[in-house]
Amino acid sequence: MSEAGEDVARILAGLAEKARRASRSLARASEDTRNLALFEAAKALRERSDAIGAANQQDLAGLSEDRNAAFRDRLTLTPERIEAMARGLEDVARLPDPVGRILAEWDRPNGLHFRRVATPLGVIGMIYESRPNVGADAAALCIKSGNAVILRGGGESLHSARAIQAAMEDGLRAAGLDEACVQILPSADRALVGAMLQASALIDLIIPRGGKSLVERVQREARVPVLSHADGLNHTYVHASADPAMARKVLLDAKMRRTGVCGATETLLIDAAIAPMLLPLLVQELGAKGCSFRADDRARAIVPKLEAARTDDFRTEWLDSVLSIAVVDGVEDALDHIARHGSSHTEAIIAEDAEAAAEFLNGTDSAVVMWNASTQFCDGGEFGFGAEIGIATGRMHARGPVGLEQLTCYRYEVIGTGQVRG
To answer: What single DSSP character describes residue 197?
Structure first.
């Protein structure tokens, strides 16, 4: 190993060793103590709001000019978003304690009583990109679930991440907990990410939250178990039975509320039976909000001004004011399109026909499916989880928003009265 490689390994090992010690004390801490840390960290976020905003401005000033508006939006921390982070910490603190839950218990003929009990995972490595609030969400969920976390934010958000980290340390100190429960890598050096991925003896779980290239790198290089965040290649399907006013309202929110979040709709599937009447209205209203389109031939036959879609457009997570459009023949055709092009993240159907809705909801392997609601509700806070640190697909050990429950495993407790097997 080169001298530089040895330095990277030494830095990570030092962080991980401190995290391991901290995780043991955090796992034994009372629920009240863990909650106090979160309430105090929320207080610190508010008190440090100006400093966090100033750090965020440094990050924004350092962005290259080729970064689009959606990327800048993901990176930006307004006073309202800082307040939302603080409230998110408080929401997590108010949730039921995930640690120590009895998941199952039973008695055996040998007289032993068995219990399966929820326990923390240990040390979690969280790798995320441009959204600095993810660091606060991850820290909150890990503290509440008794896990230590090592954070690695994107290079573009490093000043913001450090400012948020300082508030989390304030909360831990105020509760008498080890500050090493929440640590951040000292730089955005990609070699440190590589070291995290190889640290099977130091880190118990890696969670990547970011674009496709990050997730693919983690899956390719990791020697640590990975809970992957899914691409948000989400579909809204407007069925022939849809209420047109509802479809217009829901799609506008699903696409345009925040285009750079993973819950945004990227593809509109519209039933051929309703498309001639409704599609021109949808295009007009979305276009007025700055949306552009990539449409298949059937959609362009109805609205000729639409730009023709390439095949790859239906496999693109735009994270921008761009919407792919395809006309389909009923539920089965919509499901076939989703199976070919989707990422198993979130799908929605707008329909008044309950049988059609049930067929759609039962017909995908996506982590989240919705009926008559915007895909942008795919968010841990909206689910009542307080926060989230990613959306896991059905191919993982968790499905949907990853919250407190998904950050625990379990142990077996066996209680006897002196039995021996003899």
So the answer is: H
Residues 6+ apart with CB under 8 A from 324: 266, 267, 268, 293, 294, 295, 309, 313, 314, 316, 318
CB atoms within 10 A of CB 71: 19
How far is CA 207 from its chain centroid? Answer: 9
User: pLDDT tens-digit profile of 378-404?
Assistant: 887 788 777 776 666 645 445 677 788
CB 401 within 8 A of CB 388: yes
Q: 230 falls in which pLDDT band (50, 70, 90)?
A: low
Please provide the size of the chain in residues.
422
Q: Which residue has the tokens 């697909």?
A: 393
Instruction: Calculate the CA 203 to chain-centre distance.
Output: 20
Q: How many CA atoms lie within 13 A of 19 on its CB side?
A: 31
Q: Report which of 148, 126, 147 is spatially closest to residue 135, judged by C-alpha positions.
A: 126
The interaxial angle of helices 49-61 and 79-93, nearest 10 deg, is 120
- Can you state the percent helix, strand and coil of the chain, rounding each to 5? 45, 20, 35
Show the tokens assigned to 82. 């800082």
Query: According to the 3-state scheme, what is the secondary structure of 85-127?
Result: HHHHHHHHHCCCCCCCCEEEEEECCCCCEEEEEEEECCEEEEE
The gap between the terminal CA atoms of the chain, to the nearest Å, is 53
CB 363 within 8 Å of CB 335: yes
**180 neighbors 22 (Cβ within 8 angstroms):** yes
CA distance 34 to 28: 10
Cα distance between residue 156 and residue 147, in whole Å = 26
pTM of the shown model: 0.78
Phi, psi of 131 (to 5 degrees): -90, 100
205 pairs with which residues across the strands?
124
Cα–Cα nearest to 350, from 369, 366, 322, 326: 369
Tens of pLDDT, residues 240-261: 999 999 999 999 999 999 998 8
